[in-house]
Design brief:
alpha/beta; Nucleotidyltransferase, domain 5; six-stranded mixed sheet; globular
Length: 428
């Protein structure tokens, strides 16, 4: 297939734009920095206009590396749970409230009494709770998600969102509907966008957007996803049993499943990606712990002294502070980093061994909850640069480990842009 597609990734602090051809080759990348989130108490806000300006800057940088005239489609991923109210012309009626905005008062507690146990709408930062504040705004037409607003600016006019962005707002992905309990909560589903599967065509780029962004008028706008799901799609995993692990400041596991997995007590719920499901969990263990104990220079120097073929016999649980989410849900779990051996290399290897056990336990937990047998794991993040950690992971997991196709969430959005054109990138 000729041409390429564009993926746009909106994060908390920046925008990334990527061009990907039909073979999966990444052709060019552009980026932009966003102004800092405005924090007032527990409230977290950003200006939607800043998002649009960031998209323009990122695409302008992309255009300096590649002629955008050959673009065929565009898809957007954005932060999960960021919402804003708009009128019938997509004009914001208030600042956007971010995914980590916890100014929800008693509304989160009310949701707990109404929503099913497995709903992703629970929690102190519930988008549904934040949306409740806007339900009676004058001129309110729809309460939408960050990605939805960008899609509207691009030219989408049908007030649609994707199944992943809708999840934390209360959407039921099993029955594929906005549930009745939202109405009892005081948030009419009529104030929320229509929900469609990821990769669905939801419009075409308008003349106005084409001029503003330097992309062709009329190209397909595809329903995107959340930034977390986009990162998984960027791993290149395609089949149930294939998984990805992000080895960053924390260890984040995601597993593609042929059935949904729900365990809210462990922070596990399932995003729908076509006819498959994406479930996962996040441990507090990871790079944050390492950088409390070692400098980056020390880690690099110690790497060559490690011997992953000979286990240390240590029994650490290397949390950066008290509290764990997954695979153990215990807000009072204390870090376990003793006894510390005299050798820094042995200490570091013991920590890596513990990280590998946490990952293995996490995937085993997903299996006990109904997930498929683990087949392979793709990985990304700074931890991937440690050969010892990779060796210990391979031993613990007993499956093939391969690098992710891309570490750019925007590449995951680009996969969905191709899907809207009837094409799936092959990662064979």
């Amino acid at each position: 297939m000729h041409g390429f597609v564009i993926g746009l990734d909106l994060g908390t602090s920046g925008v990334r734009a990527i061009a990907v051809d039909a073979s999966g080759k990444i052709l060019a990348l552009g980026s932009a920095t966003l102004p800092a989130t405005k924090a007032t108490g527990a409230r977290r806000e950003q200006s939607p206009e800043d998002w649009w300006n960031g998209c323009r800057t990122a695409l302008d940088e992309l255009s300096q590396k590649l002629d955008l005239a050959a673009a065929r489609a565009i898809a957007v991923d954005a932060t999960s749970g960021t919402i804003l109210p708009v009128d019938n012309h997509n004009r914001p009626l208030a600042a956007a409230r971010m995914y980590d905005d916890a100014e929800t008062g008693d509304l989160a507690a009310k949701i707990k009494t109404l929503a099913p146990r497995e709903s992703a709408a629970h929690g102190a930062t519930s988008p549904a709770a934040r949306a409740h504040e806007w339900a009676k705004l004058p001129r309110l037409h729809c309460i939408i998600h960050q990605a939805d607003w960008i899609n509207g600016c691009l030219g989408a006019t049908n007030w649609q969102t994707d199944e992943n962005n809708a999840l934390k707002t209360g959407y039921n992905p099993v029955n594929r509907c906005w549930p009745d309990w939202l109405r009892d909560f005081g948030l009419s589903p009529g104030l929320l966008p229509e929900v469609v599967p990821v990769g669905t065509t939801i419009g075409h780029v308008s003349a106005q957007a084409a001029i503003a962004l330097g992309i062709p008028e009329g190209i397909t706008i595809a329903a995107g996803t959340t930034d977390g799901c986009a990162t998984f799609l960027a791993s290149g995993a395609t089949e149930p049993g294939e998984a990805s692990t992000a080895l960053g400041s924390t260890i984040v596991l995601k597993l593609l499943s042929d059935r949904p997995i729900f365990a809210p007590e462990l922070g596990i719920y399932s995003h729908r990606i076509g006819d498959t499901w994406l479930a996962g969990g996040a441990s507090n263990c990871g790079g944050k712990t390492l950088l409390q104990l070692f400098t980056a220079e020390q880690l690099a120097a110690l790497e060559t002294s490690l011997n992953p073929a000979k286990l240390t016999g240590t029994d650490y649980y290397p949390l950066p502070s008290v509290g764990e989410r997954f695979p153990v849900a215990d807000a009072k779990l204390a870090p376990r980093l003793t006894p510390r051996p005299a050798s820094d290399a042995e200490f570091l290897q013991g920590i890596y061994e513990a990280f590998a056990r946490v990952e293995q336990t996490g995937f085993a937990k997903l299996a006990t909850l109904g997930g498929p047998t683990l087949r392979s794991v793709r990985h990304a993040g700074g931890g991937s640069r440690s050969a010892a950690w990779m060796t210990l992971r391979a031993t613990a997991l007993g499956v093939t480990l391969t690098p992710s196709w891309s570490e750019e969430a925007a590449a995951g959005a680009a996969r969905l842009a191709w899907r809207s054109l009837g094409h799936e990138i092959s990662f064979a």
